[in-house]
Amino acid sequence: MFATQFAVRIRNLEASLFLISNYAIDNQKLENTFKKLFSLLQIKQPLGYGLIRVGSKDDGGYLLADDFNSNYLAISLGIGRNVEAEYFLAECGIGVIMFDGTIEKLPMQHKNFVFNAKNVCGKFDGRKSQGNLVEINQIFNDVEVKLQSKTNHSEQEKIGPLLILLMDIEGSEYETILNINEDYLVKCRQITVEFHNVFSELTNENSRLLLCIRKLKRTHEIIAVHGNNYGGSIQSGARDYPDVIEISFLNKSSYQFTDGSNTFNHPFSMPNNSNLRDLRHTW
User: Fold this and answer.
1) Is the dihedral of CA 40, 42, 48, 52 positive or negative?
2) Residue 270 placed within a domain
3) For residue 15, pLDDT beyond 80
4) Residue 65's domain is classified under what CATH number?
5) For residue range 142-158, what is the model confidence (pLDDT) as tens digits?
6) Domain coverage including residue 200
7) DSSP string, 68-128
């Protein structure tokens, strides 16, 4: 299973590097390609809450707001062989429901873990291999039932949105996010997504990347952005343009915000590949 997942990553990286090479010699074309993306990535700072790095020091770590409550539930889509972020949440008393059809079992266990060996999709749309798939809205529907049994209505009203969503699903994030019912999105307190194939998405006329970010920003503010140095990038001057980008979001209804610093390089950011320098960009 893991070999299949790794092969998919290699194939996607090869395709991305081929596309990236077409932009490496034209700085103006490169900047214009990313202009719309960076105009959307306006980072906000939640008042009264700092950010914390959750999970690994390298690949698999996320920046989230330091606000964790045992009443929350987490949904983690795409696990691979690293569950350190999920383990941190579980140690906070948070139930973590995980989905990944590329592995048969988790690399470590916790009493607050629930694992499903299935991959997430936006909609079945007549796919033949439905046995290994689960629709995103079905996941949220099932989790909502768990929330109702965990906290009563008055507690939920007092605390606000109770879900934390982690998503790293190797390119399937686009159809998944675009198909999430917005009634479920508003119930997510925090969201972090790894967006893949940035170059190919930005060169499409109807960029799913931009559509996804605009959709998430209707209910959430961006609190952290990081370029993944595993995914390939172009350096232009002192700036790096990545093909994989990680973005963390915080629900507008539960926090107040002030302007933050638009940079990949939050003090708690670390390179996904510790053998290479971290990507740099400020806009």
Assistant:
1) positive
2) no
3) no
4) 3.40.50
5) 998 888 777 666 666 66
6) 2-259
7) --TT-EEEEE--TT--HHHHHHHHTT-EEEEE-TT-SS-SS--TTEEEE--EEES--TT-T
